[in-house]
């Protein structure tokens, strides 16, 4: 005992009591996915509060000298059944909320286990074990300090729990900005408790009461033809009255309230008062119509793709071992799970992060939980090692291993780190897998500034040719891209007659209140999608340097290089005529082998004449003060509730190229801090002009361009020339490549140092790989649901000559991979 007391006294100065701002990592190892339930338990450093598995605790001591750790070990066992309760589980209720783990939402499986917890202090390097209750005999002051530290660690919220919301609610709504200032007309309108009808058509369902003037009008038409006739939203566009409540959803607890101005479902704390204005007593109302969430859930379940994509109608063979590790869903994180499963099936990502695991861990900073390379390497090792690819424990009722369910890994640290500071990926809301793929690629770029970059497998050059129709002269530019976005020409569907017949049968069924007929999905040939991608696109109001005036041009897109791995996104998500996001329900037979050699760019041809390389004037002759903006597009966007200045910028920055392009710009820049600021054009410092002294380029943007193979000087010039726009800066470099080469040569001839000029040995341009345009399909990510913001993602990957489905924790051999219903496809170059 004297030896233990002496050891404790020697480490006492390093023992800290966690404070409110400290992150206590007591659920997960910083370098592995070991937890207190793992065989070796988890060791929490009593100074830094970092957690370590048995394999890494000694290495942490050797690196930092920290000697004292709190060892947690949990043993799971089935809860004893309550003999007083009736046998059997109650029937599962149908979900009524777009939520997980809350009343009315999708169920989280009830915790059927309880834990025996073992706690002790471990002192290294002697590996002295001191039980929690073995502190007797120590001076009271010492005993109290150590006991306080132990108690504080055990009761503190773990770092992962602070990041993770156990129950996700897709219906969490914000209070409308109109709720406390809503003007209600004194027009003596009184609304009866039932028997409502749209005042502009005969619809008696999906009716909305405008809370300003009391108009009752039908809702929007959904993408599948159901819903209403858009009379409520048209009324808003005519009057500007912002709030409407869905009749039939009013109960004493609330109702569905929509703000047309904010374009979202909202909360109205004054709802009872606003309804009373029209004679409606909330306390006496009963629910008679489906809420918007119930409609969304019903639509998801009737889409017909859920069972197909998840292969849920077939008994699938579970797979275990290296490369077959499932990932737990941390609350709508299936988009992340699917993307990283595919990425770590690619050798370049394995070599970068998994093969160099020890070196990455050795060079990790003091807090490895906040280091990108460490957490990506940890994730890759967790997926590929096979250590965590084991059947989940049986719950005593059904063998989970027969369903392919694994314990898998829970990448909480990784998700928290890659989402940090991002307005979407930091939340537990569902996200677009394509957007996350590009977000992750961008993070890899920033963290591979001077080292091997696995992104090179995806990177390719796009050649864009603009041909002025008035002069027949051409302009060629190149830009970097990572994804081929493939349009879906619905007019090329092979089963048009069948689709028309289905639409007619569906219309009749809706009129007669009968069940909808079995879904008929449009079948579009892949060849038609490729043709649409390669087809010339007309560009109106193109500034022709050959004419020094506006003209009409044709833009043609081709590949200037072919990547090792071709990523194809099927553009299934678009906006309807009423600007409601919709998903095209389409089947495209994607080929197992693909040859896109015909899309290879040719560059300037001998018979072609280039336009003069002259920058367009800041103010064109027919625009004496400011560029002409398409007012009809601006009006459309403003009517949807976006700020006027933001709409003007959207039309300007998309070059008057139409409503869809402007809407996409708005959706991409809504979170910008200057989103609603006035449009600032090049030329002066007031509204409608660029500030004369723009902010210096950000180091992140400079580093990203430098990582592509350009010099720092080139990056700075490009960013300054494009007002610090990273995307436009790369395009600018390609369009001025000859000038940059000449400047670099002049720098060298004048004797400037290598640090000040581009080295002769470093090629100008991004590091892209090139080769054959022939590919074979090796993975695809599928989406189920009506929009990217809801539903579910799974991925299929071809491994060892067979298809494997990764559905969160479920990993099985695929029987019928639904290759025609994918969202993102990954093709690997066929070796010549």
TrEMBL record:
<keyword id="KW-0833">Ubl conjugation pathway</keyword>
<feature type="domain" description="UBP-type">
    <location>
        <begin position="174"/>
        <end position="282"/>
    </location>
</feature>
<dbReference type="GO" id="GO:0006508">
    <property type="term" value="P:proteolysis"/>
</dbReference>
<keyword id="KW-1015">Disulfide bond</keyword>
<feature type="disulfide bond">
    <location>
        <begin position="194"/>
        <end position="790"/>
    </location>
</feature>
<dbReference type="GO" id="GO:0008270">
    <property type="term" value="F:zinc ion binding"/>
</dbReference>
<dbReference type="InterPro" id="IPR015940">
    <property type="entry name" value="UBA"/>
</dbReference>
<dbReference type="Pfam" id="PF17807">
    <property type="entry name" value="zf-UBP_var"/>
</dbReference>
<feature type="binding site">
    <location>
        <position position="258"/>
    </location>
    <ligand>
        <name>substrate</name>
    </ligand>
</feature>
<dbReference type="Pfam" id="PF00627">
    <property type="entry name" value="UBA"/>
</dbReference>
<dbReference type="GO" id="GO:0004843">
    <property type="term" value="F:cysteine-type deubiquitinase activity"/>
</dbReference>
<dbReference type="Pfam" id="PF00443">
    <property type="entry name" value="UCH"/>
</dbReference>
<keyword id="KW-0378">Hydrolase</keyword>
<feature type="binding site">
    <location>
        <position position="198"/>
    </location>
    <ligand>
        <name>Zn(2+)</name>
    </ligand>
</feature>
<dbReference type="Pfam" id="PF02148">
    <property type="entry name" value="zf-UBP"/>
</dbReference>
<keyword id="KW-0677">Repeat</keyword>
<dbReference type="GO" id="GO:0016579">
    <property type="term" value="P:protein deubiquitination"/>
</dbReference>
<feature type="region of interest" description="Disordered">
    <location>
        <begin position="77"/>
        <end position="96"/>
    </location>
</feature>
<feature type="binding site">
    <location>
        <position position="208"/>
    </location>
    <ligand>
        <name>substrate</name>
    </ligand>
</feature>
<keyword id="KW-0788">Thiol protease</keyword>
<feature type="binding site">
    <location>
        <position position="218"/>
    </location>
    <ligand>
        <name>Zn(2+)</name>
    </ligand>
</feature>
<dbReference type="InterPro" id="IPR038765">
    <property type="entry name" value="Papain-like_cys_pep_sf"/>
</dbReference>
<dbReference type="InterPro" id="IPR001607">
    <property type="entry name" value="Znf_UBP"/>
</dbReference>
<dbReference type="InterPro" id="IPR013083">
    <property type="entry name" value="Znf_RING/FYVE/PHD"/>
</dbReference>
<dbReference type="InterPro" id="IPR050185">
    <property type="entry name" value="Ub_carboxyl-term_hydrolase"/>
</dbReference>
<feature type="active site" description="Proton acceptor">
    <location>
        <position position="792"/>
    </location>
</feature>
<dbReference type="InterPro" id="IPR001394">
    <property type="entry name" value="Peptidase_C19_UCH"/>
</dbReference>
<feature type="domain" description="UBA">
    <location>
        <begin position="696"/>
        <end position="736"/>
    </location>
</feature>
<feature type="binding site">
    <location>
        <position position="201"/>
    </location>
    <ligand>
        <name>Zn(2+)</name>
    </ligand>
</feature>
<feature type="binding site">
    <location>
        <begin position="220"/>
        <end position="223"/>
    </location>
    <ligand>
        <name>substrate</name>
    </ligand>
</feature>
<keyword id="KW-0645">Protease</keyword>
<feature type="domain" description="USP">
    <location>
        <begin position="325"/>
        <end position="830"/>
    </location>
</feature>
<dbReference type="InterPro" id="IPR009060">
    <property type="entry name" value="UBA-like_sf"/>
</dbReference>
<keyword id="KW-0479">Metal-binding</keyword>
<feature type="binding site">
    <location>
        <position position="231"/>
    </location>
    <ligand>
        <name>Zn(2+)</name>
    </ligand>
</feature>
<dbReference type="InterPro" id="IPR041812">
    <property type="entry name" value="UBP5_UBA1"/>
</dbReference>
<comment type="similarity">
    <text>Belongs to the peptidase C19 family.</text>
</comment>
<feature type="active site" description="Nucleophile">
    <location>
        <position position="334"/>
    </location>
</feature>
<feature type="domain" description="UBA">
    <location>
        <begin position="628"/>
        <end position="669"/>
    </location>
</feature>
<dbReference type="InterPro" id="IPR028889">
    <property type="entry name" value="USP"/>
</dbReference>
<feature type="binding site">
    <location>
        <position position="263"/>
    </location>
    <ligand>
        <name>substrate</name>
    </ligand>
</feature>
<dbReference type="InterPro" id="IPR018200">
    <property type="entry name" value="USP_CS"/>
</dbReference>
């Amino acid at each position: 005992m004297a030896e233990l007391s002496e050891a404790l006294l020697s480490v006492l100065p390093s023992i800290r009591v966690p404070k409110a701002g400290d992150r206590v990592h007591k659920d997960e190892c910083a370098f592995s996915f070991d937890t207190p339930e793992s065989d070796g338990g988890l060791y929490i450093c009593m100074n830094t509060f970092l957690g370590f598995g048995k394999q890494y605790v000694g290495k942490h001591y050797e690196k930092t000298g920290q000697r004292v750790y709190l060892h947690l070990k949990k043993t799971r066992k089935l809860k004893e059944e309550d003999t007083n309760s009736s046998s059997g589980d109650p029937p599962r209720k149908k979900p009524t909320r777009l939520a997980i783990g809350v009343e009315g939402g999708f169920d989280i499986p009830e915790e059927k286990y309880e834990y025996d917890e073992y706690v002790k202090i471990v002192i290294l390097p002697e590996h002295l074990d001191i039980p929690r209750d073995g502190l007797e005999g120590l001076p009271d002051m010492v005993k109290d300090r150590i006991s306080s530290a132990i108690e504080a660690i055990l009761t503190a919220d773990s770092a992962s729990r602070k990041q993770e919301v156990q129950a996700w609610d897709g219906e969490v709504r914000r209070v409308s900005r109109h709720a406390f200032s809503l003007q209600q007309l004194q027009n003596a309108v009184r609304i009866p408790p039932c028997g409502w009808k749209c005042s502009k058509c005969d619809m008696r369902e999906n009716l909305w009461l405008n809370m300003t003037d009391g108009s009752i009008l039908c809702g929007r038409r959904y993408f599948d033809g159901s819903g209403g006739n858009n009379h409520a939203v048209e009324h808003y566009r005519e009057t500007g009255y912002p709030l409407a409540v869905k009749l039939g959803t009013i109960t004493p607890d609330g109702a569905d309230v929509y703000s047309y101005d904010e374009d979202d479902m909202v909360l109205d704390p004054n709802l009872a008062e606003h309804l009373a204005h029209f004679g409606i007593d909330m306390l006496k109302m009963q629910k008679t119509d489906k809420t918007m969430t119930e409609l969304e859930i019903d639509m998801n379940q009737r889409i017909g793709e859920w069972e197909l994509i998840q292969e849920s109608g077939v008994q699938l063979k579970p797979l275990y071992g290296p490369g077959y590790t499932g990932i737990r869903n941390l609350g709508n994180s299936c988009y992340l799970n699917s993307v990283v499963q595919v990425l770590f099936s690619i050798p370049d990502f394995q070599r970068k992060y998994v093969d160099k695991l020890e070196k990455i861990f050795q060079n990790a900073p003091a807090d490895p939980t906040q280091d990108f390379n460490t957490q990506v390497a940890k994730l890759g090792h967790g997926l590929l090692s096979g250590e965590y690819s084991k059947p989940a424990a049986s719950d005593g009722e059904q063998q989970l291993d027969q369903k392919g369910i694994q314990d898998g890994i829970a990448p909480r640290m990784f998700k928290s780190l890659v989402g940090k500071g991002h307005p979407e990926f930091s939340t537990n809301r569902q996200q677009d897998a394509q957007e996350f793929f590009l977000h992750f690629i961008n993070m890899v770029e920033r963290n591979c500034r001077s080292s091997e970059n696995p992104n090179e497998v995806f990177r390719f050059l796009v050649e864009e040719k603009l041909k002025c129709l008035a002069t027949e002269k051409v302009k060629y530019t190149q830009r970097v891209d990572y994804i081929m976005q493939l349009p879906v020409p619905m007019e090329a569907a092979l089963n048009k007659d069948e689709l028309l017949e289905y639409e007619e049968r569906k219309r009749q069924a809706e009129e007669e209140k009968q069940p909808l007929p079995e879904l008929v999905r449009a079948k579009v040939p892949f060849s038609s999608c490729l043709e649409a991608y390669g087809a010339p696109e007309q560009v109106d109001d193109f500034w022709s340097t050959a004419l020094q005036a506006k003209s009409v041009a044709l833009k043609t897109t081709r590949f200037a290089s072919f990547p090792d791995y071709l990523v194809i996104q099927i553009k299934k998500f678009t906006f309807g005529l009423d600007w409601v996001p919709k998903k095209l329900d389409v089947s495209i037979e994607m080929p197992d082998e693909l040859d896109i050699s015909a899309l290879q760019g040719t560059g300037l041809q001998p018979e072609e004449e280039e336009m003069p390389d002259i920058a367009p004037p800041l103010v064109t002759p027919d625009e004496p003060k400011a560029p002409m903006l398409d007012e009809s597009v601006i009006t459309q966007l403003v009517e949807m509730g976006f700020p006027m200045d933001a709409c003007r910028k959207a039309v300007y920055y998309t070059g008057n190229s139409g409503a869809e392009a402007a809407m996409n710009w708005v959706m991409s820049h809504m979170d910008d801090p200057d989103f609603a600021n006035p449009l600032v054009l090049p030329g002066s410092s007031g509204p409608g002009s660029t500030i004369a002294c723009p902010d210096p380029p950000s180091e992140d943007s400079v580093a990203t361009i430098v990582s592509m193979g350009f010099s720092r000087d080139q990056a700075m010039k490009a960013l300054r020339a494009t007002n610090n726009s990273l995307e436009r800066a790369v395009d600018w470099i390609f369009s001025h490549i000859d000038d940059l080469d000449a400047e670099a040569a002049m720098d060298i001839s004048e004797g400037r140092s290598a640090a000040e000029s581009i080295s002769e040995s470093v090629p100008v341009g991004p590091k892209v790989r090139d080769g054959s345009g022939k590919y074979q399909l090796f993975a695809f990510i599928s989406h189920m649901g009506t929009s990217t913001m809801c539903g579910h993602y799974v991925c299929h990957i071809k491994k060892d000559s067979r298809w494997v489905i990764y559905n969160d924790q479920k990993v099985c051999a695929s029987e019928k991979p639904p290759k025609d219903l994918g969202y993102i496809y990954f093709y690997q170059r066929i070796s010549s």
